[in-house]
Design a protein that fits this description.
By secondary structure, the protein is an alpha+beta fold. Helices cover 46% and strands 14% of the residues. It has a domain of 183 residues: Butyryl-CoA Dehydrogenase, subunit A, domain 3 (Up-down Bundle), CATH 1.20.140. It is globular and about 75 Å long.
Amino acid sequence: MGIRTGQQFLDKLNAMRPHLVIDGEVVSENLTEHPSFRGLARSYAKLFDLQHDAEFRDALTYASPTTGEPVNASFLVPRTREDLVRRREAMAVWANYSQGFLGRTGDYLNSALTALGSAKKFFAQADPVYGERIEAYYEFARENDLLATHTLIPPQANRSVSGSEQLGGQLAARVVEERADGVVLHGARMLATIAPIADELLVFPSTLLRATPEDAPYSFAVAIPNDAPGLHYLCRAGLHHGGGHHDEPLASRFEEVDAVVVFDNVFVPHERVFMLGHPELCNQWYSETGAAALMTHQVVTRTLAKSEFFLGLASEVAAMIGIDGFQHIQEDLAELIRNVEIGKAFIVAAEAQAELSDDGVMLPHWPTLNAARNWYPKVSQRYPEIIRKFCASGLMGLPGEADLDVAREDIEMYLQGKSLTGPERIRLFKLAADASVTGFAGRQSLYEYFFFGDPVRMAGALVNSYDRDPLRARVREFLHRED
């Protein structure tokens, strides 16, 4: 089949029958017309259409190694540094389209599957059949241009105990039955972003498992069709309030619904089971397969696009209302410029220092990417703050698009900017509001801050994994230097 069109993606969604709970109703059909999902579905459909656009087709696709048909470039197994650049240039097309606000575009989990499908030596530690299965699934996803969501961690009931101990072990998703033809899952996991519009759910290992027999039922990796019997999604309330692109320019397009996943005795056939038991291997799922490196390569590409957007937005606001000559404004703009250039440097350094894995996959330099994923969640919290500072109370005095029909003369007179008409200034500031003060903006900040997990835990992992011994040795050598 190869790459899908946006319409094919929408048609597939409408043919599915998932169980989605949102705003007091259960939604199971005509997803693309539901107000909570319509805008997001169409934004993702646009990403699929870009694959067919003459301007972007060569960047976004490559020839399938099995059929020769064009498939998405995020499925390309990188064998050279040039392949990594090729993948990143493709990912940048989608990231720039959403200005970095779509955090779960298909290339994120496609990157994970690409690494996992090649990690034969890792899976052989448990059973080679797991490697064969996930390679087959990777090819299935590639050839059918699937969009996946995923879920990792148990619900937050009692943080003083491990996930497998929540409510006596009854809360977290776990294997409750092993059958001759597959396994049965029961319990819950969070947090599945874009769940309502996905084709598939990837249930990959939590990275917080203890390597004990008690954690074995919670140690698994599977793929499930998004409308599998017994699979329920508890969606949070939407952050798009029905406004059009003028009044809610980001939320109307990019509101990615997050959901808690409930497994009510969900059956998974063996061919979709990629690991069963082996908590110690589940804890190494991302680091030892290269999945973390390829996924983070996608993330830093996306977050660079977001940094560039905020630099562009702040610069446009400053120029259009005449504050760009003030030194305290230039100081903030300089901060945004630095972050854009640091983001670019992380990408270039990770690619330049890439090395082949034992399975022959060219992986970007993990210490560099690990530093990037510890850096961005914190610096990104400044972005909406800077926009709020530049716009100030102007963010609160914003008539809606409909008001132009009844008060255009007043809006033209009293809401103009230095270089903008009143209606133009409202439109720009509506964008600034959606990026800095609305519920959509708040969720974006929270999402970025905890994207990879607890920043404190991530910092500890960075310290413990970074080889500082040569630097300590340099200090000791200097202390004993005689000349």
